[in-house]
Structure to design on (731 residues):
């Protein structure tokens, strides 16, 4: 009997699908006939029934374990008198039939939310009813309304949560300041983006003697959210369900009600606020000599922006500095301790790749006006290093107390990724490689040694691609990218639930108690798939938690909380990327047929992904558009090579393209390669391609899975959202 396994169905717009196995093994292909009775996100039991010519397994659904409870979003249409909804997410593969009496107030063409009343079968389409009308497809912000429902992002607070928030005071009360250190006379300041609305961290630095040497006293004050959000309260339950704030262009869906996130918990200037403080002594070489945590009350002495602080640091006699004379020396102290912390970062070999990050600028109607690079200046880096130091101290504090808590764990590359990277470095003649048990310093050394090479971007992309994603877990195994033996998240409790849990644990330790994690709600179906796949990475947790017995209920609760927070973090990222991709597609529809220069950001077996120079938009040049010869994908070199001419296209190759097709529903942009004789093209890579027929802008001949396979810096990438806080790096 063939082995059966459980997993979640992932549909494909072309009609086939895959089973994403719970055990973390490779996905199993489902042919179109197997997808007729199931839908995207259904839980199934399946087995492998055959292998194709390349040895890839093909599966058959044996049993449908659980139908997805996730509603379907799409456009209501009427065809030949029959009402149906065409799903916005093409992975569903089938239209949903709507009986005449189940359309509600919706009219043809509107975007609606559908609840299934009958699942699909081998011989029948799914049937549903209209649950909610979102509006017209071109309504401002419709892409966000679709995304939050498509990915199951909680976007409405419960009545209990809102009622509890309304009952909170407007300001810090005198009895709330009891048993707290009074820091109101300490010149703590906030440094954030211009569009920030919530401020969860403030900093202050002064010179100090560390032993007999010069050093600094660095204070990182973080909003004391745990004082107002009690464990198990209605606000806490909603916050846990969300697990993180979700950032979109022009809109943020906060983890906490606005009265807390932008008011009572936000470290706004010139008002008293409750905070948790990490008070550190830093040596001249950036080592943390000592630290302590304590609850305090503070009074922010100024609200700075990154741009303003960078200008002051660049010219202490300039106009920006003259406006802030009373805070100038404090900023210089912060810059000095940043320099020391930077030395420590380099000494431990933390990975630090510079990547181009972009910001979408929209008009009042939500239309993209422009896409601009987000410049990361010394002020950004200064705050980042201060937050890293506080996070390291919080991890050490929890470990020393031997209390359970959530760590931010980033593991090194898998054996498979190490082999791919070694082969690539060898074929490109870098002259450096990684060991069997690589350290972060090895990656940083390769990055430094290749920084001036013409293919530096390609090499750095491969280094980044070899790393894993970070997760939250009670099992500490360090943070590979940052080169920390222990690391956790302490600095953003307004927008991240793991930070709120860390605050509660630290408070319990200070009171010589043990924080008991309550019975937490079961994660919703929207992210249960991600949780199960993340769980496959936690092997033998009872052994890693240093106990010979089975995990205790408390240990299991912490593992569940880590999986839940990790899965919801992925969910938030996916929803944000989906909205950005939709906006970019809509933007590029106005530029069909136009030509642009760009750079290859990824090479695959089916084509090249190219990012445009001036617009920072990525699209696919399908392999069929590369010219009249056969191109072979070289995995080791990550390039496409023409068998007849030897023409090569690799990451970093400069090309000229024409925008040929935009698929708004699929979030994809297709380019066509244009023959170009400019001398700016790289050598030895040559360009070739058939000339476009401007009267017939054709699409690609084969579909492709993702709009973008651009490699992004994992967990250290800092993204922002207009009208919302420019967020700290997640690390």
């Amino acid at each position: 009997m063939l082995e059966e396994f459980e997993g979640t169905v992932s549909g494909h717009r072309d009609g086939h699908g895959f089973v994403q196995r719970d055990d973390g093994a490779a996905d199993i292909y489902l042919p179109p006939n197997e997808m007729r009775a199931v839908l995207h996100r259904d839980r199934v039991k399946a087995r492998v029934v055959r292998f194709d010519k390349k040895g890839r397994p093909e599966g058959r659904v044996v049993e449908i374990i659980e139908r997805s409870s996730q509603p379907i979003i799409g456009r209501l249409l009427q065809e030949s008198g029959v009402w149906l909804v065409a799903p916005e997410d093409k992975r569903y593969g089938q239209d949903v039939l709507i009986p005449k009496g189940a359309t509600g107030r919706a009219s043809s063409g509107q975007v609606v939310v559908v609840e299934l009343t009958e699942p699909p079968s081998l011989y029948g389409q799914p049937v549903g009813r209209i649950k909610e009308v979102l509006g017209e497809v071109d309504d401002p912000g419709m892409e966000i309304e679709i995304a939050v429902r498509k990915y199951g992002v909680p976007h409405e607070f419960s009545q209990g949560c809102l009622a509890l928030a309304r009952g909170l005071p407007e300001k810090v009360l005198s009895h709330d300041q009891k048993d707290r250190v009074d820091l109101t006379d300490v010149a703590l300041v906030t440094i954030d983006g211009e569009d920030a609305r919530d401020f969860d961290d403030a900093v202050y630095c002064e010179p100090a003697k560390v032993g007999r040497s010069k050093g600094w006293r660095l204070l990182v004050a973080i909003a004391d959210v745990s004082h107002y959000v009690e464990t198990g309260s209605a606000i806490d339950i909603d916050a846990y369900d969300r697990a993180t704030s979700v950032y979109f262009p022009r809109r943020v869906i906060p983890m906490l009600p606005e009265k807390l996130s932008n008011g009572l918990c936000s470290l706004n200037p010139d008002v008293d606020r409750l905070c948790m403080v990490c008070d550190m002594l830093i040596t001249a070489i950036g080592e943390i000599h000592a630290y302590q945590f304590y609850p305090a009350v503070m009074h922010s002495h100024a609200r700075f922006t990154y741009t303003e602080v960078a200008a002051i640091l660049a010219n202490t006699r300039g106009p920006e500095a003259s406006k802030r004379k009373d805070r100038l020396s404090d900023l210089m102290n912060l810059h000095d301790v940043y320099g020391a912390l930077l030395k420590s970062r380099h000494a431990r070999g933390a990975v630090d790749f510079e990547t181009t990050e972009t910001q979408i600028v929209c008009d009042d109607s939500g239309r993209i006006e422009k896409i601009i690079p987000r410049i990361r200046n010394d002020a950004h880096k200064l705050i980042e290093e201060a937050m890293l130091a506080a996070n390291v101290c919080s991890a050490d504090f929890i470990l020393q107390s031997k209390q359970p808590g959530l760590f931010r764990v980033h593991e090194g590359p898998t054996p498979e990724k190490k082999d791919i990277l070694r082969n690539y470095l060898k074929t490109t003649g870098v002259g450096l490689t990684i060991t069997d048990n690589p350290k972060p310093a090895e990656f940083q050394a390769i990055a430094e040694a290749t920084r001036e090479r013409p293919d530096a971007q390609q090499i750095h992309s491969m280094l980044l691609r070899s790393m894993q994603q970070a997760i939250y877990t009670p099992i500490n195994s360090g943070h590979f990218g940052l080169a920390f033996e222990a690391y956790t998240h302490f600095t953003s409790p307004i927008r991240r639930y793991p930070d709120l849990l860390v605050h509660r644990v630290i408070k319990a330790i200070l009171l010589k108690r043990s924080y008991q994690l309550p019975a937490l709600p079961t994660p919703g179906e929207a992210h249960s798939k991600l949780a199960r796949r993340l769980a496959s990475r936690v092997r033998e947790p009872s052994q890693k938690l240093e106990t010979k017995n089975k995990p205790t209920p408390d240990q299991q609760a912490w593992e569940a909380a880590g999986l839940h927070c990790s899965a919801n973090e992925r969910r938030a990222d996916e929803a944000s990327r989906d909205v950005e991709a939709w906006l970019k597609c809509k933007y590029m529809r106005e530029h069909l047929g136009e030509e642009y220069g760009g750079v290859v950001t990824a090479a695959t077996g089916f084509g090249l992904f190219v990012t445009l120079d001036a617009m920072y938009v990525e699209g696919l040049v399908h392999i069929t558009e590369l010219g009249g010869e056969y191109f072979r994908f070289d995995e080791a070199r990550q390039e496409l090579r023409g068998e007849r001419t030897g023409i090569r296209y690799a990451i970093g190759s400069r090309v000229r393209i024409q925008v040929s097709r935009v698929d708004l529903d699929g979030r994809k942009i297709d380019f066509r390669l244009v023959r170009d004789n400019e001398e700016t093209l790289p050598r030895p890579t040559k360009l070739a391609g058939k000339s476009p027929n401007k009267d017939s802008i054709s699409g690609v001949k084969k579909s492709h899975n993702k709009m973008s396979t651009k490699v992004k810096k994992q967990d250290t990438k800092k993204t922002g959202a207009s009208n919302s806080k420019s967020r700290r790096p997640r690390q």
Q: What stands out?
A: Residues 4-66 form a domain with the OB fold (Dihydrolipoamide Acetyltransferase, E2P) fold (CATH 2.40.50.140). DSSP finds 16 helices and 31 strands in the chain. The radius of gyration is 27 Å. The first strand starts at residue 4 and ends at 11.
